[in-house]
Structure to design on (150 residues):
């Protein structure tokens, strides 16, 4: 069944998208919850209006998240303390959860641990680059300083 999405649906699309889904999924889940309507011939204008409204919302949200990214970068390096051996090698590694907690404490910005992307686990004392996903195309790179716990 072809439907027009009214609200964003994960793994399916954004408002204004015309997608093909199973009849039961549309009838029993999407349409009753107001997430979609059945597509018909005269729906082209409605699709354009939904898409324009969605694009305006994304543009406004992107501006807010870009300001947040600037605040994160301006807050300076994020310091995380971890137990380390004599040569600067950590006992274990610094996790994305620890970095998210440190960002919340030092930069006063709430970041989900799933949005902190580590290229590889941090297993040594020193300075490391960490990417934080805030929004579409807004991913500031933060400097994380890992210090040995005394």
């Amino acid at each position: 069944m072809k439907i027009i999405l009214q609200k964003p649906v994960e793994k399916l699309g954004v408002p204004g998208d015309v997608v093909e889904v199973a009849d039961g999924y549309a009838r029993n889940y999407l349409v009753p919850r107001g997430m979609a309507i059945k597509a018909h011939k005269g729906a082209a204008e409605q699709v354009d209006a939904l898409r324009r409204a969605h694009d305006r919302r994304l543009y406004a949200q992107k501006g807010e998240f870009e300001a947040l990214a600037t605040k994160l970068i301006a807050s300076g390096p994020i310091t995380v303390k971890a137990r380390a051996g004599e040569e600067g090698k950590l006992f274990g590694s610094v996790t994305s959860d620890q970095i998210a907690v440190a960002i919340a404490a030092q930069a006063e910005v709430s970041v989900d641990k799933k949005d902190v992307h580590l290229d590889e686990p941090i297993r040594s004392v020193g300075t490391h680059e960490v990417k934080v996903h805030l929004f579409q195309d807004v991913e500031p790179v933060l400097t994380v300083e890992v210090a040995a716990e005394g």
